[in-house]
Design a protein that fits this description.
Layout (H helix, E strand, L loop, with lengths): L2 E3 L8 E3 L2 E9 L2 E8 L3 H22 L1 H16 L9 E5 L5 H7 L7 E6 L2 H11 L5 E6 L12 E7 L8 H11 E12 L3 H10 L6 H10 L2 E8 L4 H6 E8 L11
Parallel strand pairs: 5-6, 5-8, 6-7, 8-9
Antiparallel strand pairs: 1-2, 3-4, 9-11, 10-11
Helix pairs in contact: 1-4, 2-3
Length: about 260
């Protein structure tokens, strides 16, 4: 973790500064880089509480509900929902108002059991309302994805939408998400991509902006196999703002199939 020493203070006084990279370029032997102080988890929870009342309208306007459904249909068709057994067990990390979980509900069998977690109480309240009345068996929790309150190897599917890029070190949350996956289970991560629209999100929320190759490195280093990236299709804004990265947890040493 980067540290900062105050120039006029005692030499042994150091302050931890958690930052998000914004820009880095090499000019010969010189590297010029810019980093930005990340929002704390308390600040994030507060900002998402404030955003919760209008969040569904924003996602609808950007086309995300339909794009999420098309993406899940494509990814899970390759895996074949039937291979998950009689009941699909899914976890949504950073559920927000439930847009990704609602997309799963529209295409999953009635036996699907969904757990979801978020740090924003008001987002969870909206998610509970939006998920009410669908076929899913739903359990919502207020909590931190870097320390998931679930046992090892219990989920067939772990998914997250635009949560990892808020974290200074996304690998901590990714390792937790992989820990709770069953062998052969899938992880689906929607991320803010490096683009002009991604820069707007960064300026507002202080997030990482992730190119596809870096996103795959994140997933591979967390222990996932057969990783690949694909666009969030079906809507121009979604394609310019987001990408999806998919990976599988090894099944007794055999790679689980995610892509042909």
């Amino acid at each position: 973790m980067p540290q900062l020493t105050t120039p006029n203070g005692p030499p042994d006084v150091r302050y931890d500064v958690e930052t998000i990279p914004v820009f880095a370029r090499w000019f010969g032997s010189w590297q010029i880089s810019v980093r930005r102080r990340a929002l704390s988890m308390d600040q994030l929870a507060h900002l998402y509480d404030l955003a919760a009342p209008g969040w569904c309208r924003t996602l609808d306007r950007l086309g995300y509900p339909r794009a999420y459904e098309a993406m899940l249909r494509s990814v899970l068709r390759e895996k074949n929902l039937g291979t998950f057994g009689t009941q699909l067990r899914a976890l949504d990390c950073g559920v927000g108002t439930g847009a990704l979980s609602c997309a799963l509900a529209r295409m999953s069998p009635a036996s699907t059991r969904l757990d979801a977690i978020d740090i924003s109480p008001l987002m969870l309240r909206r998610a509970s309302r939006n998920l009410r009345g669908n076929s899913l068996k739903v359990s919502l929790r207020d909590g931190d994805v870097r320390d998931l309150p679930y046992d090892d190897g219990v989920f067939d599917l772990v998914m997250t939408a635009h949560m990892l890029e808020h974290l200074v070190d996304p690998s901590v949350a990714l390792r937790e998400m992989v820990r709770v996956l069953k062998p052969g289970g899938l992880l689906i991560a929607c991320l803010t991509r490096r683009s002009s629209l991604g820069m707007y999100v960064h300026l507002k929320w202080r997030t990482h902006r992730v190119p596809p190759d870096e996103a795959q490195v994140w997933l591979r280093e967390s222990g996932l196999e057969n990783t690949r990236c694909l666009p969030v299709n079906d809507h121009a804004i979604c394609r310019r703002l987001s990408l999806v990265c998919v990976g599988a947890k090894g099944d007794r040493g055999v790679h689980a199939e995610v892509a042909p």
